[in-house]
Amino acid sequence: MSSSVRIKPKTAIQKSKTSSPLPCSPEPAAKPQPKPSDKLNPKTIDPFGDHSRAPSAFAAIYAKGGIPCRLMHGAVKHRLQWECLPETLPFDPLLITLAEGLRETRHPYTFVSKEGFKELLLVEDAAEKAVPLLPRLVPVLKAALAHSDDEVFERGLDALVQLSAVVGSSLNGHLKLLLTNLSRRLMDKKFKEKITVALQKLEQHGGQATVAIIKAKIPTYCSVNS
């Protein structure tokens, strides 16, 4: 009997140790849930997640605060808040950097690049600032239009139309570099209407000379004036 009494405390102690959570338990104590803003902060993105890879140039610049705006998220839609008035910002290299960000496929980079590019082109003297950058800007847009991701292509197409509305006929000398990619996507039924509308807007913004340039690459194009 005395032996049995001595064994029980030992057994209880072992049971207690076994039931106690270990430091490397697969079920650690619950961590506080991240704030909504954390999900939009590139510094909180898990580097070992599904998108594990070296950050793109745009992502690296954004993470270091090199893009002078931040994403403000609401219940309905997101918007950008600029650190200073866009009118006061130099387009070189910001506009080109935002154009490079159009090739991003992860949030918040997709939104920041698309909306930032659009809003920067809305400033009063956008044409004066953007035209000198066309030789560097067009190849970047071409890369977006050549991207295999459909959403990247659409962002590139929207950006091209926005740019043409600002620089007008100054874009004509660079159109040949862009039309090849549009011609290829034109064969895709889901993009045919969107690309046709974009080409018509390029004509409206670029003038009559634009028609001949477009037809040289896309013979089936019909002018808005025909």
TrEMBL record:
What lineage does the source organism belong to?
A: Eukaryota, Metazoa, Chordata, Craniata, Vertebrata
Question: Compositionally biased, Pro residues: which spans?
Answer: 23-35
Pfam families given in the database record: ParcG
Kindly provide the name given to this protein in its UniProt entry: PACRL protein
Where are the residues of the annotated region Disordered? 1-48
Q: Which intervals carry biased composition (Polar residues)?
A: 13-22
Q: Which InterPro entries match?
A: ARM-like, ARM-type_fold, Parkin_co-regulated_protein
